[in-house]
Write a structure and sequence with these properties.
By secondary structure, this protein is of the alpha/beta class. 27% of the residues lie in helices and 21% in strands. It is globular, with a radius of gyration of 18 Å.
């Protein structure tokens, strides 16, 4: 059925409205999930022969703050559309003086400092047949897809934007920015950047056996690192706007650098080996 194939995508990008707006011939599809509504419709288009679904993380009008995003619905909707590999670009603050505005960092670790977000599909709820307990402890030692990370780093280098290959993203609850004391503490731990949306996106992707790769764009030096008045929202938006074009180019190239979904052999694709799942993945 033509309708079914046009509603299918292989690769997902969870980002701002700056991304889907530049695709030709976008198909908008509305998804419903058992976990509620995603942030917005999925916008499907083609990049280098790959079918890609874009999802504006904060909604197309940017009406959802980080703590109100339905991360479970977002990841579930992407998987239900056929997506198996996801890029999650996001704006972050730099925790080292050398990671100034405009730095692109592809993290290989994260630290979760969120406080009030649902971060699992495996809630142990009673099941219709009462057979399989919905309890799973997902392996998360390496939170990001190694294949996706390589594709992202190679794509950035190909565009002449040397990225920081690896580092730790600290994810805070927000929506406020950090105090100087918090920021200094984060930096003292050796963490690289701080953001508000990278988690639980990463672990929910892993729970759905999706490959997930974060690309972080530094928009400011965090409060404990810089010497001025502290981070402002206007500053974040300004730097993001200046870099969204080349970030989009890097993402397009990274998409074309991914393997076919059927050829995935990374840990992400086998995250639940040995577990009997209490939910059926879409
Ligand atoms: Zn993977």
């Amino acid at each position: 059925m033509a309708e079914t194939s046009s509603a299918h995508a292989d690769i997902g990008v969870i980002g701002g409205s700056g991304f889907y707006a530049f695709l030709d011939d976008v198909t908008e599809i509305t998804m419903e999930t058992p976990y509620g509504d995603p942030s917005d419709s999925l916008f499907l288009g083609d990049i280098a022969g790959r079918r890609v679904a874009f999802l504006p993380r904060h909604g197309r009008k940017h009406h959802l703050p980080p703590h109100r995003i339905n991360y479970r619905a977002n990841l579930w909707a992407l998987r239900a559309a056929g997506v198996r590999q996801v890029f999650g670009p996001c704006a972050v603050g730099g925790l080292r003086p050398e990671y100034g505005p405009g730095t692109l960092l592809v993290p290989d670790q994260l630290v979760d400092r969120t406080k009030a977000r649902t971060q699992t599909f495996f809630d142990g709820e009673p099941l219709p047949d009462g057979q399989v307990p919905n309890v799973v402890h997902t392996t998360f030692a390496d939170p990001y897809c190694p294949v996706g990370r390589r594709a992202a780093v190679a794509a950035a280098r190909g565009r002449g934007w040397e990225p920081v290959d690896g580092g730790t993203m600290c994810v805070v609850e927000g929506p406020r920015f950090s105090t100087r004391a918090e920021s200094r503490w984060h930096a003292a731990q050796g963490w690289s950047v701080v953001g508000m949306t990278g988690h639980p996106e990463a672990v929910l992707a892993r729970e759905l056996e999706l490959c997930y790769t974060s690309l972080t764009l530094v928009t400011d030096l965090d409060a404990g690192v810089e010497t001025g008045e502290g981070v402002s929202h206007a500053e974040v938006l300004k730097v993001f706007g200046e870099n969204v074009g080349r970030l989009r180019e890097v993402l397009f190239d990274a998409v074309s650098g991914l393997p076919d979904n059927a050829d995935r052999d990374c840990l992400c694709a086998h995250g639940h080996e040995g577990w009997e799942l209490g939910i059926e993945l879409p």
